[in-house]
Amino acid sequence: MMSDSRPDLVIYGSPVSPFVRKVAGVCIAKGVPYEIEAVNVFDPPAWFRDISPMKRIPVLRDRSVAEEGVAGTIADSSAICAFIEKKHPAPALYPEDPMALGEALFIEEYADTALAMAGGLGIFRPIFFAISKGEEPDLEKARNAWANQMPQIFDVLEARLAGREFFAGGALSIADITVACVLMQVSLVAETPLDRWPALAAHFAAMQSLELIAGPYAAAEKVIRKALPTRFDLT
Ligand SMILES: N[C@@H](CCC(=O)N[C@@H](CS)C(=O)NCC(=O)O)C(=O)O
């Protein structure tokens, strides 16, 4: 019998999405092979709309379940990461202790929503989407988000870290991976001075030194730097 060298797990999307990088990071942490299949979420093919009811990337396919159609697919990075944890338990990326688990899941959600709104919609998009269309970046909008939206979020993250190395359970978890991936969406287009938030700054630096964070980010940067050679200063 011929062996199939293709990985079971396919991530539909682009490494430019922080949520795609989050799923990729979880796979790397666990040593699970995966591939990314490019889907342009702003003009998706019909088959993608079927597997992504909210028209979002990423969607995961487990080819060992089904090679096409809705079966074997999971939409939403949080659902995908929980699935990968169940299928490949080691190393654990979700705390065992119930309260620590709850804390980790809250930080994941906070990064996926509040941080992604401020950093992704408030900073990344006004800069990079404009540049992609050959327009001037909306630096006023980005500066406003950096000055007026990000600080409250950084305050919350700083307080939750409370000087510790990790957000929950005393070990690397889905919370740390998600915060780093989403915050690095800002790094793609702008400097991210975090002097006022020392615990978060240390956490961010430590995360960036991990291959599971740096590898997928490098793939995104390769795309971004073609259109935007240097980062903006938003201060
Ligand atoms: N909660 C979702 C968010 C996914 C998401 O917002 N993805 C963005 C790309 S970073 C997207 O697909 N946007 C499509 C659009 O805005 O139409 C997840 O965690 O997977």
TrEMBL record:
Superkingdom: Bacteria
Keyword vocabulary terms for this entry: Transferase
One GO term describing the cellular component: cytoplasm
Domain GST C-terminal residue range list: 97-230
PROSITE patterns according to UniProt: GST_CTER (PS50405), GST_NTER (PS50404)
A GO MF term: transferase activity
Domain spans labelled GST N-terminal: 7-92
PANTHER family xref list: GLUTATHIONE S-TRANSFERASE OMEGA, PTHR43968
Protein name: Putative glutathione S-transferase
Organism of origin: Erythrobacter dokdonensis DSW-74
